[in-house]
Write a structure and sequence with these properties.
The protein is mainly beta and 299 residues long. The protein contains three helices and 18 strands. Strand 11 and strand 12 form a beta hairpin. The N and C termini lie far apart (52 Å).
């Protein structure tokens, strides 16, 4: 494996699926007219239906993110990421992953998001912070920071190195992305383009010490979601595909992700999902992800 090849396992960059209520607002008006003294629901849970004006205002102020990605650590939420510096792995690995997201609305168009991920099979934790700015009805801009670590056993498992890695690998990333969202009938479609600045640490593999460095990464993700009325709630199944391009190595990784976001309380949602991730030089990862999304009430 070329030493310049980068490895990135995301269990929740968990891309959580991020679908704004701006995009689904027209569908909600058509399918769920407001009736006095009735109760209505969106992806975040129950909403008192005391008038279309209130429902619309509530919807415009809410954005559901998912992940895995992280895997994301993630992500089409979550934002979890894991990379192996080099390897010669083949085959696949099933990786149960748990994650949680806290969304804190600051203003009508600004949300702060905090993520935590843990890939159990690799014993790899990660954390992510996002600040999402909804510039227009169809465009959001999100700067973010990601930190993750992978212990030597996890690195050797992924890269098929017997004792090759002897130290925990830690990486930090600063990212910024732009996401365009639109709807076609009831289908909600989004495309995200992300720039990543990766800060790779000094690490030891096979008795050799490789110096720290900084490289650039580009990510492109296309996602689709479809709202379904289930009882008094709206469930949202989703699917996405994402490709990764690393400076000096080319297209190094791709992932496919599918799952469903289910509201369980007014400000709490549950998101089970499955993600397949292929990265050059290491084992394929098959993430079984379970996430909780908490949204603080808007001010």
């Amino acid at each position: 494996m070329n030493a310049q090849k980068t490895r990135h396992l995301a269990a929740g960059e968990l891309w959580k699926v991020s679908c704004t209520c701006d995009v689904r607002n027209r569908w909600m008006r058509q399918r769920h007219p407001v009736v006095k003294n009735a109760r209505h629901h969106d992806l975040d849970g129950d909403v008192d239906g005391d008038g279309m004006k209130r429902l619309t205002k509530f919807a415009l102020r809410h954005v559901l993110s998912l992940a895995i990605c992280l895997l994301s650590f993630g992500g089409l939420c979550v934002a979890q990421e894991v990379d192996v510096p080099s390897g010669r792995g083949n085959g696949s690995l099933i990786a149960p992953t748990g994650w949680a997201e806290l969304i804190a609305p600051v203003q009508q168009r600004i949300d702060l998001k905090f993520y935590g991920f843990y890939i159990g099979e690799l014993k790899a934790p990660s954390a992510q912070f996002d600040a999402t700015f909804r510039a227009t009805k169809f465009l959001s801009i999100t700067p973010s920071y990601l930190y993750y670590s992978v212990p030597p056993n996890g690195l050797n498992e992924l890269a098929n190195h017997s004792g090759g890695f002897t130290r925990t690998y830690e990486e930090q990333q600063f990212r910024i992305d732009g996401t365009v969202m639109f709807s076609v009938h009831k289908f909600e479609i989004s495309e995200r383009n992300m720039y990543v600045r990766r800060f790779l640490p000094t690490y030891i593999c096979g008795g050799k010490s490789l110096p720290e460095k900084e490289i650039n990464r580009y990510r492109n993700r296309i996602a689709i979601a479809y709202p379904l009325a289930v009882g008094s709630h709206i469930w949202k199944p989703f699917a996405s595909y994402e490709a990764f391009y690393d400076q000096g190595s080319g297209w190094t990784k791709n992932r496919a992700w599918t799952g469903v976001t289910v509201p369980i309380e007014k400000h709490v949602s549950f998101q089970p999902s499955y993600m397949w991730e292929n990265t050059n030089g290491i084992k394929d990862l098959r993430y079984l992800m379970f996430g909780l999304i908490f949204r603080m009430p808007s001010k």
